[in-house]
Write a sequence for this structure.
């Protein structure tokens, strides 16, 4: 249980730092005290009244097992579409899509 709590704690430290950084492209990597690593990359592109942001978080244990989560959020004048994809340590993956439509 300790090995699960420490990476989650480290991830909870990354998220506020990412929100505080200015700009449209940023990244951060944290190495845990047991040799694991958590990295987060965030990129946004803006143009033609559309904003598309991609965020990828990857965690790797000292033994080399890794998990990742990617989120793509696209916003235009009609609403926002979000697609999240996760990959587990065994290579298994899954995804989820959702949308929010705005009417005026």
């Amino acid at each position: 249980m300790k090995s699960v709590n420490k990476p989650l704690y480290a991830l909870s430290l990354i998220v506020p730092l990412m929100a505080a950084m200015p700009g449209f492209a940023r990244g951060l990597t944290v190495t845990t005290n047991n040799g694991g690593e958590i990295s987060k990359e965030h990129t946004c592109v803006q143009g033609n009244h559309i904003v598309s942001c991609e965020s990828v978080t990857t965690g790797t244990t000292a033994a080399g097992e890794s998990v990742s989560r990617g989120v793509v959020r696209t916003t235009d004048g009609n609403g926002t579409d979000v697609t999240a994809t996760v990959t587990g340590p065994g290579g298994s993956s899954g995804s989820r899509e959702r949308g929010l439509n705005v009417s005026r």
